[in-house]
Target: Alpha/beta superfamily hydrolase
Amino acid sequence: MKNVKNWSFNTCAITGFSLSSFAVMLLIVNALAQNLFVGVLLPIAVVALVLGGAVSVRAHFLWIQGNKDPKKPVRRGRPLS
Model:
């Protein structure tokens, strides 16, 4: 399995969305089962939501990194006035 650092934006975004959707699905299943499996489904849903959020943040960083304009000069220091 590839390291998450080597994943592309699309891979991170789809994985984050999938994990978050999986967490919501587990919570819906838990509600439909009248909380019979709350001891099992809730911790799995929390872990899936945390992992989905972390991968989504990685996708956001990749998005920002990919949208940098190489022709635009980077200002450092005080603004010119």
